[in-house]
Amino acid sequence: MSKIKICGLFREQDIDFANEAKPDFIGFVFAEKSKRFVNAKLAESLRKKLSKDIIPVGVFVNAKIEDIIALQKNGIINMVQLHGGESDEYIEKLKEKCDAKIIRVHSPLSAFNSQLSDYILLDSPTPGSGQTFDWGLLKNLNLSQNYFLAGGINQENIKDALKLNPFAVDVSSGAETDGVKDMEKILKLVGVARDFLY
């Protein structure tokens, strides 16, 4: 059964919503240009309120490796999602110093080396936009590695996403109303993911 990640939590009530819905993962976005940005202090406060059953993922765009390591060492995040142009050398250095699974984002339209990361995440060209990409492209990819599927997943299309048998679906804007997380949408999305049978 596929897992589900609700990404872009930045308010205390977002944590309350997650604790009730119980997704497998939540995401804290540490990219300053994101409207869902959280800094280390806020993320630490939110993390303390998060259920221990939910795995917190840190989302980064070309961040300093030292900043990622500090967040992981302090128990604020348990996994790392790289959303920028991080090089293979960057990832190798991060893996040497950071004891966390790594998710590397890739465009389904380009060739990629998935050997260094623990997971890949396939997303639309504009992450966080709520736009899907052509999921038919997945047929042309070698997806021997566990992958997260992101990009415009919402209540209307999550069943179609789950039929593609990803390791996890990753939802951000599809769990929001007017730019903030919506409890009813989160509950429904997680419920569908839990109930979906192949």
Characterise this structure.
- The chain is of the alpha/beta class and 198 residues long.
- Helices cover 29% and strands 21% of the residues.
- The protein has 6 helices and 10 strands; from the N terminus they run βαβαβαβαβββαβββα.
- Strands 1-2-3-4-5-6-7-8 form an 8-stranded parallel beta barrel. A two-stranded antiparallel sheet has the order 9-10.
- Helix 3 links the parallel strand 3 (55-60) and strand 4.
- It is globular.
- The N and C termini lie close together (8 Å).
- The mean pLDDT is 90.
Distance between the termini: 8 Å
Treating each run of at least 4 consecutive H or I residues as one helix, how many helices? 6
Helix content: 25-40%
β-strand amount: 15-25%
Biggest sheet statistics: 8 strands, parallel, barrel
Structural class estimated from helices and strands: alpha/beta
Average pLDDT rating:
90
The low-confidence parts are none
- E-strand count: 10
Spatially, the strands of the biggest sheet line up as 1-2-3-4-5-6-7-8
Choose one word for the global shape: globular
Question: Helix-strand pattern, N to C?
Answer: EHEHEHEHEEEHEEEH
Whole-number radius of gyration? 16 Å
